[in-house]
Amino acid sequence: MRQSRLFMPTLREVPAEAEALSHQWMLRGGYIRQTASGMYTYLPLGWKVLQKIEHIIREEMDASGAQELHMPAIQPAELWKESGRYNVYGPELMRLQDRHDREFVLGPTHEEVITALVRSDISSYRSLPLNLYQIQTKFRDERRPRFGLLRGREFLMKDAYSFDRDWEGLDVTYRSMYETYERIFHRCGLTFRAVAADSGAIGGQGETHEFMALADIGEDTIVSCSGCRYAANLETAEFRVPNLDSGLDLDPAGSYAKQAAAPPEVVHTPDVRTITELTEYLQVTAHEIIKTLLYVADGRLAAVLVRGDRDVNEIKVKNKLQADTLELASAEDVMKATGAGIGFAGPVGLTFNILVDNEVAGMTEGVTGANQDDTHLRHVVPGVHFSLEYAGDYRNAEEGDQCQHCGSALEFHRGIELGHVFKLGTKYSETLGASFLDHDGREKPFVMGCYGIGVSRIMSAAAEQSITGERLLWPKAIAPFDVHIIAVSVKDETQMNAAEQMYRELSSAGLDVLLDDRNERAGVKFKDADLAGVPMRIVAGRGAASGEVEWMGSDGEKVVVTVKEAVERAINGAQKTEQTGGERRP
Fold first, then answer.
1. Residue 40 carries which DSSP code?
2. DSSP 543
3. Which of 107-121, 233-247, 308-322, 540-554 shows the lowest mean pLDDT across its residues?
4. Pick the residue with more confidence: 220 or 534?
5. In the chain, how long is the greatest CA-to-CA distance?
6. What's residue 241's pLDDT?
7. pLDDT of 119 strictly over 90
8. What values do phi and psi take at 564, rounded to 5?
9. Among 67, 178, 243, 376, whose CB has the most other CB atoms within 10 angstroms?
C-alpha cells in the first residue's frame, strides 16, 4: 500500500474526550472515529487490525471443530420473553418496534436465537456434540460508554455456543474452548490471565472463566495468589477468614454458638453517620464496627453486615439471594424499615433476612446502628443479639488476604476483559424447550456452553499494552502491515529507487507492505510511522546512495544494513511470525 493513497487522517493533539492511552492513540493514528457516543467507524488501519484478529480467531475456532454461521443482529423480543431475560437484562437491552408494532431487540448476545435454531433442527444424540460460532456486531446500551472501544454501545464480538448430551461432554468442550482461547490470545501477542468469574446476566449452572488482559486502565480487578495459580475476578474472589477471637465456635451443623450476653449499651451519637465519624466519636477502630447496609433484591429488603473497614461484594449478595436485581435501599426505604435515617441502621430487631459476613460472625462484639436517629449500640454480640442463620462470605477480597488454597497473600491487578467462557448447563434448553432423543430413546435437554470474545476489545487491549514512550508498536501478528518502508525524500531519485525496489521484492514475497511515498517532511513521516505501529521499519535516506538503509525492528534498535539484508530481515521476521503465531510480549 502506498501511503500517499492511504486514508490515515492523523491528529497531532490528544483528543480531550479520550481517557485511555489506547483510545488516544487510535484516534490520533487514524484507526477509528466516533460516530456517536460509544459507536465508532473503523478506518482502513483499524479495520486491517480487526481483520487480522478475526483471522486468528477463525483459524483457532475452526481447528477446535467449531463451525461458523451468521445470525441476525435484530432478534424477536418473544424469544427473550420466553427465556425470561427480557426484563432481567435491564436498560442495557436495546429495544425497538417495526411498522407493525412487533417488538424486537438489538442482540447483545445470541443464546436465545441459537437455542431456538438448534431445537428446530437437531433431534438426535447422533448430531452431538455441536459447537457453532459467529463474528458479529453486538449492541448494549451502556449507561456511560468510555475508554473508546473498551466500553461501547456497538462492538464486534465472536460468540460460540456448544450443545452436548451430558455434563461430561460439556466438560470436554469447555476445556477445548478454554485452551483455544489461550492460543488465540497468545497469538494476538497479549499478556493475559484466565480467572474464575461470575456468570452475570448470561447465567449458567457451572464454572465460568474470564480472560483478562493486564492493563492499568482495566475496569476489572484481578485477584491472584502470590504463592499458587489461583486467580479470580474481584467479584468472585474467595479467601481464608481466620478465627478472630476465641469466642467463635463452629458446630457440626455450621451455626455459630456464643455465650449469653447482656443487652447492648445505647449510646447517643448526634449527627454521627459515617464510619470515620463513628471511629473518632467513640474512639474505636473501624474493625470494631459492624456496618449494616440495606438492599432491595427483586423488591424484597435484605440487610448485609460487614466489618466497618470492609466493602460489600454485591455479586456475592445477589447470588446468595438468588436475585435478578439488587440495589441499595433508598433513604425512604431505610426509614420505613428501621425508623431511622441512613447511617443509623443496625441488625438488632430487624425482621427480614440478615446476611452476616463471616468476619462479623466471628466477632466477640461490635458497635452497630440502633435503628434510631443519632443513636448507636455498643457490645452487640453476633449470634446473640441478631441471627447468624445466613452467615457467609459477603465482602470483597483485599490485598494481603490469605489464599483459600495455600494461605499465601493475595495480590491485585487491573485487567481488561477479553473473553468469557460459561457452562450454561440446561438453563436455556429447559426454558426454551430444546431437547433431543438420547441413545436410550429418552428425551433430554441439551447441555450447553457459551464462549465470547470481544474482537474490538482485543484491538484496544493490544494497543494499551503496546504503547512505549512515543511509539505504538503492534504485536506482529495483528499489526496493520508487516513492514513500513519510508523514503525520506521522494525528490531524491536514489532514495525512491531503493524504497521502490524493497517494496516490490517484499510485496512479491507475500508481505503486507506500507510505502511512505508522500512529499512530506521527514519529521512528519516519522511521527506518522510511530502512530502506524508497524513492527518492522526500513528508512531509505542519504545512505541509499551507497546501497545502505536504516533498519529498525520491534526492539527499537536502529542499525545500518544493505538493501538486500533489509529485505532478508523483513522476510525472515514475517516468516517467524507466521510459524510461531506471533510473539508473546513479556
1. E
2. G
3. 233-247
4. 534
5. 97
6. 84
7. yes
8. -60, -45
9. 376
390: number of Cβ within 10 Å:
17
Q: What are phi and psi of 401, to 5 degrees?
A: -60, 155
Give 3-state DSSP helix, strand, coil % of the chain, rounded to 5.
30, 30, 40
CA dihedral defined by 62, 66, 67, 73, rounded to 10 degrees?
A: -110
| DSSP structural state of residue 126 | G
Query: Is residue 353 a contact partner of residue 390, using CB atoms and an 8 Å limit?
Result: yes
How many Å apart are CA 103 and CA 464, to the nearest integer? 39
In sequence order, what are the residues at sequence separation of 6 or more whose Cβ sits closer than 8 angstroms to the Cβ of residue 101? none
Q: How far is residue 242's CA from residue 101's CA, in Å, rounded to a whole number?
A: 59
DSSP letters, 86-101, are HHHTGGGSEEEE-TT-
Residue predicted with more confidence, 4 or 583? 4
Q: Which of 88-92, 120-124, 252-256 has the highest mean pLDDT?
A: 120-124
Determine the 3-state secondary structure of 395 from DSSP: strand
Of 179, 143, 427, 395, the residue nearest 291 (C-alpha): 395
Give the Cα separation of 123 and 107 in Å (integer). Answer: 26
Per-residue model confidence as pLDDT tens digits over 71-104: 999 999 999 999 999 988 889 999 999 999 999 9
Residue 50 has pLDDT above 50, yes or no: yes
Instruction: Give the type of residue at 25.
Output: W
Mean pLDDT, residues 267-294: 96
Report pLDDT for 410: 94
Q: 55, 79, 35, 31: which is closest to 455 by C-alpha? A: 55
Q: H helices then E strands: how many in the chain?
A: 15, 33
Task: Map out the domains of the chain with their CATH numbers.
Answer: 16-237+412-464 (3.30.930.10), 249-392 (3.90.960.10), 474-580 (3.40.50.800)
Q: What is the DSSP string of 477-509?
A: GG-S-SEEEEES-TT-HHHHHHHHHHHHHHHHT
CA angle centred on 385, ends 379 and 390, rounded to 5°: 120
Residue 33 grid coordinates: 472515529
Radius of gyration of the chain (CA): 29
Neighbouring CB atoms inside 10 A of 528's CB total 21
CB atoms within 10 A of CB 274: 10
Rounded-to-integer distance, Cα 173 and Cα 50, Å: 26
Q: What is the arrangement of strands in the sheet containing 74-76, beginning at the earlier edge strand?
A: 74-76, 103-106, 94-97
- Confirm if 189 and 181 have CB atoms less than 8 A apart: no
